[in-house]
Amino acid sequence: MRIIINECKKILDIRIILLLCMFSILYYMTFTQIYRYPTGGQVTNTKYDIPFTAELVKEWGPKWKVKDEKQYQEKHQELEKDFTKIIKQDQELSKRGIVDYEIFNKKYEELGQKTTLSKQEKELGKILENYVFYNDKTSKIFLDIQALEHIREFQGSEYGVSDKKYKELKADGFFDGTKLYQKAIEKRVKRDYISLVHEGVFYILQEDMVTIGGLIMICFFALIIPYQLKQRLRQVIPILATTKTGRRIYQIQLIASALVALFVGILQMAVYGIIWHLKGLSGLSRRHLLFYRSWVLLLRTHLETSEKRFSQRLILRALIRFWT
């Protein structure tokens, strides 16, 4: 065991590790989706979108029944009341008759549709935009309502449809594609629930697992190549190959290399997990969505909606069967 530990120490050169730390930071900033979040993969493209979905999962569970209108209305009204409570304190808005969310949203949409604005309308527009984008409290509530409404609109057109609506969609070419895709999409539109697990989460994870895999390989080879070069330059390998003890040491070196690869992989995944948590995406793994269940649902969502390569679908199916 001591020999293996000594070989691991030789591979883990502190100078190379420091260089890899700096390289990893640049790599994360340049290539990972998690670092760029929330610039893509969300409904509102803000930091509130996916965490809000995590809140819904804790309250409603991982699935939302299409016919459960009461649940939706209660949540919508709760958010509206919170928003109204804040804007009621603004005298400028009260003077203009904007005293609740419904009036606020209607006025905001009207101003957004106009091509030319008067001086008063421009002033009002700035006040409304401040509440939508720059006031942390109202911005979160307003965008949470947008995300909630999107869920309803999305399910209304593509989930829990009647047989008549299904035939209309089929006639319009909604199910065009491979047989596997047709079967998956048919199953989705006929089911009476939608998954609340945010597809943006799986998009980030799917893209980054490939990216992080590349980073792990780069770090591993950056550690192994200098180690192997030193061995060859010192003519150690030919000597090891000629004796029984030497061949045993060579096997130990291979084991040490495998352990270093495992260590690098665990370390990079731990760093990724910390960033994931700091970005506010860890809420989906709590309470109703334990870690494995959350990813199973994500994999299923992706499997039902994607038209990716056949090999990718096989891998996803294997993971789902393993976890369930």
Walk me through the structure.
The radius of gyration is 27 Å and the shape is elongated. The chain has helices at residues 2-11, 14-31, 33-36, 49-60, 69-87, 91-95, 101-113, 119-134, 136-158, 163-171, 179-190, 199-233, 236-242, 244-278, 291-305, 310-323, and strands spanning 63-65, 193-195. Helix 7 packs across helix 8, helix 8 crosses helix 9 (136-158) and helix 15 (291-305) packs antiparallel against helix 16. The protein is built from 16 helices and 2 strands. The chain has a two-stranded antiparallel ribbon with strand order 1-2.
Task: Tell me briefly what this model is.
It contains 16 helices and two strands.
Low-pLDDT regions: 285-299, 301-313, 315-324
Straight-line distance between termini: 37 Å
- What is the H-and-E element order? HHHHEHHHHHHHEHHHHH
Determine the mean pLDDT: 77
Sheet/helix structural class:
mainly alpha
Content of β-strand = under 5%
Rg for CA atoms: 27 Å
Largest sheet: 2 strands, antiparallel
Morphology call: elongated
How many beta strands in the DSSP annotation? 2
Q: Biggest sheet, strands in spatial order? A: 1-2
Total of DSSP H or I helical runs spanning 4+ residues: 16
Q: Which range best describes the helical content: under 10%, 10-25%, 25-40%, 40-55%, 55-70% or over 70%?
A: over 70%
